[in-house]
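> call design_seq(struct)
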């Protein structure tokens, strides 16, 4: 972040004080003095003066308010989308209504503290812009469907860029299936690890079936992923829209290994689904003696 401090001949001293205060706080800045002959400058020259600046700060007194260059700088900053502030030499100086939307600073310490806080936000915004720019350079359009496709392709680098550019880690597809569940359904444990490391909600449910990633792993017989999700603290007793738990889904597959992992993680074999049946009852209904013996152990 770098601040261009603009001044007229009458506010050069004020601008120097500002630059000193900002420099003492570790904030980069430089001065731009506008003299009477500024209007003879080519636009390209003016652009070059402002090019290093991410922000513009106008040192202001009563005379400056009446100068054409000041009005130009205000319009220039707004047109360029540069954050703009005013610094008054006189705290009692009244500003015209057309400047009412601008932040006004009245002393060097206030200016330094303001820009220290602004630098934090600016760095975040700069990271967002850089991530989006990198995606475009890679030929990846910046919208949710592209992010989801990158996830399905297993492209953790691109998904990471989408997250850095501002997309939420718990984004859902058009069917309401969150990224974590999409990764689990794709049996992509690397992507699951990546999302959880970026603070994804491990127990987030999909809108289609009400499944968590743990339920998706159980339904697909993905023992490795199920074991990993349990190790990261996934709740084994959450229920889908039909009331099914990961354990009921494992029993439906007659999967002893996954059922054991779930029971060892505290899964309740006696939670009923919407039909009133439990994992234990399904094991009996489907004649799975090994599973029934496993339940008796727990």
């Amino acid at each position: 972040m770098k601040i261009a401090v603009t001044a007229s001949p009458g506010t050069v001293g004020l601008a120097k004080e500002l630059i000193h205060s900002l420099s003492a706080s570790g904030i980069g800045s430089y001065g731009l003095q506008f003299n009477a002959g500024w209007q003879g400058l080519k636009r390209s020259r003016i652009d070059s003066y402002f090019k290093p600046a991410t922000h513009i700060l106008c040192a202001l007194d009563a005379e400056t308010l009446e100068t054409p260059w000041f009005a130009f700088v205000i319009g220039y900053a707004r047109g360029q989308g540069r954050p703009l502030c005013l610094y008054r030499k006189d705290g009692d100086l009244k500003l015209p209504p057309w400047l009412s939307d601008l932040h006004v600073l009245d002393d060097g310490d206030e200016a330094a503290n303001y820009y220290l806080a602004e630098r934090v936000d600016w760095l975040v915004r700069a990271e967002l812009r850089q991530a989006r720019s990198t995606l475009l350079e890679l030929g990846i359009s910046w919208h949710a469907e592209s992010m989801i496709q990158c996830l399905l392709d297993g492209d953790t680098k691109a998904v990471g860029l989408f997250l850095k550019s501002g997309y939420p880690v718990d984004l859902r597809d058009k069917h309401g299936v969150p990224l974590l569940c999409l990764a689990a359904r794709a049996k992509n444990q690397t992507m699951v690890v990546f999302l959880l490391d970026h603070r994804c909600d491990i127990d987030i449910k999909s809108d289609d079936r009400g499944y968590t990633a743990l339920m998706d792993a159980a339904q697909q017989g993905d023992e490795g992923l199920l074991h990993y999700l349990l190790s990261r603290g996934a709740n084994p007793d959450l229920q889908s829209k039909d009331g099914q738990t990961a354990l009921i889904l494992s029993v439906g597959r007659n999967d002893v290994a996954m059922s054991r992992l779930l029971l060892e993680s505290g899964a309740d074999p006696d939670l009923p689904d919407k039909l009133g049946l439990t994992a234990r009852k399904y094991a009996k209904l489907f004649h799975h003696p090994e599973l029934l013996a496993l339940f008796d152990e727990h």
